[in-house]
Amino acid sequence: MVQGSASRFVVANVTREVAFDLLKRIQEEDAYANLLLPTLIARAKLDSRDAAFVQELAFGTIRNWLLYEKIIEAASARKIDDVEPDAQIVLVLGVHQLLDMRVPTHAAINESVNLAKAKASKGSVGFVNAVLRKIALREKDDWIDSVTKGLSESDALSIQYSHPIWILQAFKSALASRGMSGELEELLLSNNVAPKVSLAALPGFCLPSDFDSVQQAQNRSPIGVEITGNPANIELVKKGFARVQDQGSQLVTLALITAPVEVVDNIWLDMCAGPG
User: Rounded to whole angstroms, how far apart are CA atoms 183 and 71?
Assistant: First the structure.
């Protein structure tokens, strides 16, 4: 990632350690990446550039996890379950840097080896080095062709886009019921695109036009605002006048409150599941 002073190399190691710690907590504790990552970044005192690197490294790895596991299996001639868990995490992070990020090959491999020394067993260091060097010899598309060769269309798409087969089959059935079977791959592709952060400008408290023009984009919701950066740094969010909410969720809420109600004396319970 960084080719500068010794202090920058230290930071480079810290960024990868933060990504490693996040993925380990997800694996072992079912932690929510979007909730835990800001805490880990703040604890490591990373600047905005390094925080952005960690976010892309961690979230990009998560989005491609299944594909990366298959590539590691092909390059190592081992089943992924036979690789120690900490080395698995080091490897998938390394694969993402090699195949999907603009990290120089030598830096991606060297930093992954250093991460293995810090986080995995001593015996895994040489294994990580050898596997990543082999993976670096081919482009991502070549690896996809290799690990999906001879598979059914569904199994191949499941691996290529890192969607569990049961989710892929659910998408496939839903599209078929609407006469849209030909759009399966497009849906899988779009589902892997990193989402933008959206705010809901709470009616009665603020308007989308109250935000800086830089923060506004083509919004599907009349109260939606797409932003970049940390929403916690935005004054209207600090005041409680706006909050993070996907624009699809905003539209559902707006549709519900404008729906005609036939019985007005009932008690309504507003519920949601999970964080957020």
Answer: 26
| pLDDT reported for residue 274 | 62
**Domains of the chain and CATH, by start:** 6-141 (1.10.940.10), 150-191 (no CATH), 197-258 (no CATH)
For residue 196, what pLDDT is reported?
82
Task: Find all residues with CB under 8 Å of 192, minimum gap 6, and list them.
Answer: 63, 64, 161, 162
Per 3-state DSSP, what percentage of the chain is helix, strand, and coil (rounded to 5)?
65, 5, 30
Q: Can you read off the two tokens belonging to residue 19?
A: 């990504």
Name the more confident of 228 and 174.
174
Helix residue ranges, H only, 136-240: 140-148, 153-160, 165-177, 184-191, 235-238
pLDDT of residue 4: 43
Here the tokens at position 209 are 């036009």
Q: What Cα–Cα distance (Å) separates residue 169 from each residue in 148, 175, 191, 229, 240?
A: 17, 10, 14, 35, 40
pTM exceeding the 0.70 threshold for the entire prediction: yes
